[in-house]
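chain below, 400 aa
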Amino acid sequence: MKILVVHNDYGVYSGEEAVVDRMVADLKQSGNEVAMLRRSSAKARNTLTGNIHGFFSGIYSLSGRRMMRKALRDFRPDVVNIHNLYPFISPAVLPLCRKAGVPVVMTVHNYRLVCPTGLFLRDGNPCENCLQKGNERDCLCYNCEHSRLRSLGYALRNMVARRTRAYKDNVDLFCCLTEFQKQKLIAAGFDKDNISIIPNCIEYVEPQDTPLPDCDTDYVGYVGRLSEEKGYDILLEVARRHPEIEFRFAGTPRDDKTIEAPSNVKLCGHLNSRQLARFYADARFIVVPSRCYEGFPVALLEAASHRRCCIAPGHGAFPDLMTDKESGDTCGLLFKPLDVDDLEEKIIKLWSNKALADELGSKAESNYKNRFLREKVNTQWSNTLHKIAEDKKQTSATNQ
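prediction:
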């Protein structure tokens, strides 16, 4: 089968890009012929010209339409799998696929279909105003992007996509990562019969033989970008209260922001896959303190693959992802979202009880193997794409 994968990379390499790259590799490994229509936002956010270009192309990208026409004509795919279309591809490419008779399957990584920023977050707190009101005005009113130009651009492109029904009329199947995401789309008026759930997955990586420099074993670990929505600052506050506990942060700050950390916190920066595996293996447990709901934080899976449990907020998809469906066991601890005191309590509970941390780590590993193995998820994707392509061919044959 011939699959065209469409994605606009973000400014810096993210978890979403990693998922796209892994998915392409898996589809090829399964015997499919895969081509990519891919653009990048690297450096675009940092220049006035880039911001202006992104502003208009996010609403309607002429160059994106040209690239899609060429890909449909030259590659002649059986199915198109879209990921992120903003800003340099845009939803304006979707009617071209429908006109060509090629089915479209969208991997829904975040909440951008119903929230202009994709985060359901405003001023550091969860916000669903755009979903509840059915419009995007609050993105501009509250300047959710902390830039009037970007907030206006984000609101406009979502408004145009909603009013033209670019996604609803041209995407054959929306593949959400979690049940939580699915329910948000249904609440926004998307047809529940056109929504499926296929989770993220990871590939297990063996830790490197030597420990990381300046990163002793047995610590509270954090993995992710050091930005507001990730809630790293909440964890830093707990670290300041407990100088007797070692904390390690793997990740880099957004926009090269300087992070002021207490002496018991070491910022390890960006780690490659082998180093990251070592980081998980040497941690006692991992904390995911997200302010936002998250789409599907792969840190949960990466930690579980190394038999490490997580502490995470009790909102979004976290409660579901951290529950073993077969046993019903919770494989980590949930804290009250944004509540530093409750997070502190949960951290102290696990730090002072290594046996409990190990027990929850074993349950997390079992949950990972039962639900999120790469082979299982790859099979789900292959079966889904083949079925959509075959159904489209049969419908076209019937209508002729």
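The mean pLDDT is 93. The chain has two domains: 2-201+374-399, 220-368.
thats it, cya
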